[in-house]
Amino acid sequence: MAEEQTEREDGGGVATAKDSLTVTDNRTGETYDVEISDGTVKAMDFRQIKVDEDDFGLMTYDPAFTNTASCRSSVCYIDGDAGILEYRGYPIEELCERSTYLEVAYLLIYGELPTQAQLDEWIFEITHHTFVHENIKKFVEGFRYDAHPMGMLLATVGALSTFYPDAKNIDDRLERHMAAVRLIAKVPTLAAFAYRHNLGLPYVYPDNDLSYPGNFLSMMFKMTEVKYEPDPRLTRALDVLWILHADHEQNCSTNAVRGVGSSQVDPYSAAAAGVAALYGPLHGGANEAVLRMLERIESVDNVPAFLDGVKNREERLMGFGHRVYKNYDPRARIIKQHVDEVFEVTGKNPKLDIATELEKHALEDDYFVERKLYPNVDFYSGLIYEALNLPPDMFTVMFAIPRTSGWIAQWLEMVTDEETKIARPRQIYTGARELSYVDIGAREQRTEKPVAETNLIDPAKH
Ligand code: ACO
């Protein structure tokens, strides 16, 4: 393809068009121009680069999407170097100070802040969809007493699709809206049922008089009292934590929701994919790891020795560092401000002193400064969850509740985007080709199958 040239405005002769990339294929000597728009090139533009007519064409290889934009999105903006996070253009700091989680959920989903009437209607709708079908309760009862609450949440969110079969009509605007309302309303109920199931306690039905976080605390902690009265300092802290966790652009679980949703499956099944991805320790599980680390450090006196271990690569400072933020994670700064408020109610978590000391030392240490390692969102959130008396297994569930609104916002954006196609990556094939089938008697064993320690059937596992 001929190189596109334009006249320079300053009259200094011809120059290559600015918004393109010129690529020379050294296999053939051919030169190609590829358009640059929004700071990206289209991977499909490389398909034209071939060694001959039969060649499939050049592909790009990016197994972890580390440098590939998978969509256009206007939901969430992150500038990792500057430590900026915005939802629909609004800075996270302002939203945490002046908004509520449910208002933020509306903002993420519908793209703008609601009027008072819209907000009232939204809160009414969410509040009146918090109940789940009684069969869901029976379904939860079927889990073992020690089932992981994320596993239960994953199954029950997926099961919702069988209760709302019309949700598969994803072209229907009302159905999409109802799925958004139902998911945001019911996920806290499912989370609380899973928690109570682990404790062998009766499930607590939603209380429509309470706020969204207040109702969650009631479903979790109500015992014999006629009416549970949540402490406003705790509901506010929980609301802020949920605003902070509501969305974070194309992270692992959001990518799972979009990927699964691109098959045009119903939104409950797509959201279940998000829960599954969040379950993994590299994604939603880091806050639990921070807590375990603080437990091991035991006292403030052990902090310098622990950090020496980190620098000698014997340890990792959990809750520090981030793939995108190379500055203080703005969410960590906000959580830190609310830690004291929570401890006023619950009593101070002694691990806070260790965490504060760790942060102080790390931020003054060249190892962490040079690598731009700062506290991330998970450094302080586990301390709050522990102060609320939540077991570590529930920490990731506490993340899934607010992330539900982000998943739905991104799913809605995807299903209404004209550019959306089923997500279907290519591969570099590394296996054998064109083998001939060998009769079973003539085969040689070439691979070892893993063998269980015992052939006896363990009834606990079957
Ligand atoms: N402790 C010690 N050293 C670290 C840490 C850490 N927490 N994080 C990064 N480093 C070091 C690496 O060893 C590497 O050093 P080197 O170049 O001398 O080898 C350098 O900093 C760059 O780190 P990478 O691993 O390349 O950074 P990456 O972007 O791949 O990893 C991650 C980011 C996974 C978050 C990492 O910082 C980490 O493991 N942190 C601890 C776990 C954690 O807190 N995860 C939660 C993230 S927030 C969230 O998911 C909601």
Report what the structure shows.
With about 450 residues, this protein is mainly α. About 45% of the residues lie in helices and about 5% in strands. The chain is built from 17 helices and eight strands. It has helices at about 90-100, 100-110, 115-125, 135-140, 150-165, 175-200, 210-220, 230-245, 250-260, 265-280, 285-295, 305-310, 330-345, 350-365, 365-370, 380-385, 395-415; strands at about 5, 15, 20-25, 30-35, 40, 75-80, 85, 90. The radius of gyration is 26 Å and the shape is globular. Residues about 1-15 have low confidence and may be disordered. The chain binds acetyl coenzyme *A.
Tag the structure with descriptive keywords:
462 residues, mainly alpha, 3-stranded antiparallel β-sheet, 8 strands, 46% helix, binds acetyl coenzyme *A
Number of strands: 8
Instruction: Estimate the global geometry from the Cα principal axes.
Output: globular
Beta-strand portion reads 5-15%
Helix content: 40-55%
Q: Report the average pLDDT across residues.
A: 92
* Spatial order of the strands forming the largest sheet: 3-4-5
| SSE ordering | EEEEEEEEHHHHHHHHHHHHHHHHH
Bound molecules: acetyl coenzyme *A
Helix count, DSSP H or I runs of 4 or more residues: 17
Largest sheet: number of strands, sense, barrel closure: 3 strands, antiparallel
Structural classification: mainly alpha
Work out the radius of gyration.
Answer: 26 Å
Distance between the termini: 63 Å
Which regions have little confidence, pLDDT < 50, spanning 5+ residues? 1-15
